Amino acid sequence: MTAILDRAVCPAPIRPLAPVVGADTTVPTTAGGETVYANLDYAASAPALVSVAERLSGALTEYASVHRGAGHLSQVTTARYEQARETVRRFVGGRSDDTVVFTRNTTDAVNLAAHVTPGDVVVLDIEHHANLLPWTRTGRARVVPAARTVEETVGRLEAELAAAPAALLAITGASNVTGEVLPIGRLAAAAHRHGARILVDAAQLVPHRAVSIASWGIDYLVFSGHKLYAPFGAGALVGRGDWLDAAEPYLAGGGATADVDLDGRVAWHTGAARHEAGSPNTLGVVALAAAAQALQDIGFEEIGYHEHRLQQRLDEGLALLPGVHPLRVFDDAADRVGIAGFTVENHSPRSVAEYLSVTRGIGVRDGKFCAHPLLRKLGYPDGAVRASFGLGTSSDYVDRLLAALSDLVRR
Hints:
By secondary structure, the chain is α/β, with parallel strands linked by helices. 38% of the residues lie in helices and 16% in strands. A seven-stranded mixed beta sheet has the order 4-10-9-8-7-5-6, sandwiched between helices. Strands 13-14-17-16 form a four-stranded antiparallel beta sheet, with helices on one face. Helix 7 (184-193) links the parallel strand 7 and strand 8. It starts with a helix and ends with a helix.
């Protein structure tokens, strides 16, 4: 089997595209001794880029409170925090007047969007819980079943938008289970034709593909730093300011207020400050902006080529393994990011993940990936295994995974 895999996959070695923190970390295995950890769990939390860690180290020496501080370090930190908004806006191709609200993560950003959306929301039944539960809990979600093809799914969404007025279409840019990418520009045009706006959960999209809010016609876009090579947990909601300014503040507290008295009168800020009450995750925001800039500096053409070669190598190898079944939502998806969900016959997802870890030092994800309805729809209610990769991944990691799975299925 190993010889077959060697002949089938691309023979040229693929090196990491950028250095990540912890790339040389070793872990124990049952083979004896230690081996370099093969991190194939980027879709959960990507390792920090070395350049991001260096940027954070510099920011820590000048770290102080943001906003309202007259001291020099407060002014420096505030400038970094506010400059990060422009970096993030440029990174996602935002319009000049788009509001950038920093949040705890993607889930927090979608909950903020649900808080400000003034009407019904159309969503697919295959969404990550982060882009499903905030809408269904409002009682205003209209859930559309995804079809076996992208084309039919787009048609179903448009039919639902045409059937009755909706305020918003909320869609995931790339599946966290299969990596499949939906045609966001087409969906934005469909939403606008029927008087709705569109929100894109881009948590799994922005680390892999260039995104343009303005040219794609996106109204709101959300994503997280921890999937973008930025530690400390920060996310963002980028989009049109009118709904954000019209809604009550997401949190009540300092920073969101312009004036308060004891008679119950509160004057709230408009803009991003309205929904950023309390002391912000300043270092998380600095890391998020640094990661966004780093990806732009590398270039998404280079990132896409690196990812395509790894994905091809993995897909071809998995196809040769008996009893290994790749997961797909659509029969006609034209694009996938660096995520591969699969199952192994006669082995639970957890047992596969544990085998890979203890025998070969490989880290993958197992379970339902916070997408329980999707796993049931695909016929795997007990979950699956997911390998995912990014800038720090080499072909050695992919080959090690394929060799370990080959050993497992032969057992």
